[in-house]
Amino acid sequence: MSRRIYLTSLLFLYLFLNLSSAQADVVQTPYTAQKVVYDFYFDEPQDINSALFWLRSHLNPLSEAPYDISIDENSIKVIIHGTEIVTVAKKNYGKYKEAVERMRYYAELGVEFKVCALAANDFDYAVDDFYDFIDVIPSAMTELAHWQLKGYALMRPVILQKKYRNEEIR
């Protein structure tokens, strides 16, 4: 019986030492071109800044090695229909300049930004109140359904209020 306990203890010690020294593997998922529609609908206008990091996190890995997938102008759409609509109104450029310039950059890469006409009306905006990289669409809901029926994956950025700096919790 004691020999059995001894062998079991050795086995557990061996497993513990091997598992504790193990590390994560880097996996190169075989990504291909993607069709995605982003649903931007936020409580706070400044949340668009965090949502644009979702877009960056989507675009950067695809456009870099080993994938080198170029963004086709029909592959990524962003539907804007919450309070963040104020960020793409030209009159608010001074307040939302950083977000506007990031969107303009993504638009130059081929991302399509679309504003819901119903939401624009709720905010008393007209078509000419928006930048030239913005398309005004009849309805966010019908647009989201349309692209999903065409095979586009739906992405809804979840915006959290960061309570801790990374250095505080790692």
Report on this model:
The chain has 170 residues and is α/β, with parallel strands linked by helices. The chain has one domain (36-160): DsrEFH-like (Hypothetical Protein Ychn, Chain: A, 3-Layer(aba) Sandwich). It contains 6 helices and 5 strands, in the order αβαβαβαβαβα. The protein has helices at residues 2-20, 47-63, 93-109, 117-122, 140-149, 166-169, and strands at 36-40, 76-80, 112-116, 134-137, 153-155. Strands 4-3-2-1-5 form a 5-stranded parallel sheet, sandwiched between helices. α2 links the parallel β1 (36-40) and β2. The chain is elongated, with a radius of gyration of 23 Å. It starts with a helix and ends with a helix.
Overview features:
elongated; 6 helices; 170 residues; single chain; 5-stranded parallel beta sheet; alpha/beta; Hypothetical Protein Ychn, Chain: A
Question: What's the short story on this structure?
Answer:
The chain is of the alpha/beta class. 43% of the residues lie in helices and 13% in strands.
